[in-house]
């Protein structure tokens, strides 16, 4: 959400020393160090970076870094596409019975994929960091909005923390999320056992369609409960939960700013309830954290992650089959529903208490609520 801040009249620099105790009625004229009067939006910078790495940093004022990120990303993408084309041609020759003249460039293909992913996420995080820094230098207030922060944390874990100015935690979450991608290859290799069984019973698959459905379900469960999938889900939920926990009762200017921003997105009860429901579906316990009830919120999130990790661990160790692991993992949906329902009941109850309190006040005072 972009906010246009009022501008202040220009003064002689010597006037600042005449009375240091006087607080200006409006902040200084915003700028991004390149174009006077232009207010940098953290959210717009994030969107530009999501569309093309480097564009968000260019928009936020870090133009040299943006150009470097874009060029490196473009070169990595071209290299990866070339390796992908070489691999596809080699596989076609192999299918036609021709021998492979050179080994497949699978290692290079994996490296190019990882670098492209890392640059894409870095572009989004770097754009948010640059936008926050530019707004701080320009004298603009922090740009805080729960819905935007949750969306950024879900798409790019750590971006929400960076938007609050908490750079160490933001880059730690981002680094953990990106470093999980190289584990995709071992996880996919673990599906060989499922595929070998499918090839062995290929004749039965054509005769019994229910086996095809069961095979598809087993593959889906193995992918959903694999280490990369569970680990990235944990990092995403942790990023959202930490962002919501940070938006609790805060002292100072940040708390005042949050109250101002929060009043805009939560004015409508229907919109607020819908937002809480989506938040609880993305991260169980996050609605409670956003409402300032940390004990309940962290307990719900911990229970959800424990159920998911238990099901995944038992499946990887081949202690239980895929359908039983899926049954255990489905218990986590109870935690999701409980988090959503409890937070919505809390909103309705608080709404009723506010109306009751307003009804007990005189007419002029009740209109203020």
TrEMBL record:
Q: Which domain of life is it from?
A: Bacteria
The Basic and acidic residues compositionally biased stretches are 9-20
Keyword Transmembrane helix present in the record's keywords: the answer is yes
* Disordered: region residues: 1-34
Parts of the chain that traverse the membrane: 67-91, 111-132, 170-191
- Alphabetically ordered keywords of this record: Membrane, Transmembrane, Transmembrane helix
Q: What protein name applies here?
A: Uncharacterized protein
Organism field? Oceanidesulfovibrio indonesiensis
Q: What is the lineage of its organism?
A: Bacteria, Pseudomonadati, Thermodesulfobacteriota, Desulfovibrionia, Desulfovibrionales
